[in-house]
Amino acid sequence: MQGNVSRVVILPQGLPADPAVREACLALLLRAGGDLQRLVEGGEPASERGARQLARLPGVGGPGVPPLVLLSRCNPVGIAVVQTRAALQASVPALGRAAWLLFVHDDPFFADAARRLGTLDRPLGELPIWTCGAGTFLVLEPASDPLMVSARLVALETGELRAPRPEITPAMGPSRRPSVVGKLRG
Length: 186
What we know:
186 residues, alpha/beta, Rossmann fold, seven-stranded mixed β-sheet
């Protein structure tokens, strides 16, 4: 993230319908540096007309702080996330420099689907960064720690990702924890 400059927020799938979930999403976008007065919601950004309009918006194309793109529908991951990003970036190449965020809510299958298509650098609930063939995404949830959003966004944008932490399931217990070999960057 570059300084404390507010960023255009592009919401191709709109905001969540549930008022409490929507408020949590907006609070996290604000912590990520999003300008809630410059929300670009819904529409057809992948259409030729929509792409031209989006690319002309100040803060999207051209120099300066790249926009935030938030996908709020993540199920199924392959279509709702991977194909949506590919279509948007093909239509608006300037979005290749945007910070991509996922807002996962009410989707108990997201983590398994995300692991099949890529890697999460930490467990859900800890603001993981998901890396897949389509790119990298910061994964937000309604209960995400707002104070950690900025630091995780910096990690996303600078590529300073740590090796994935092993997830410990309750069945593993402390004596069956997987070992991690190597040194993690701090």
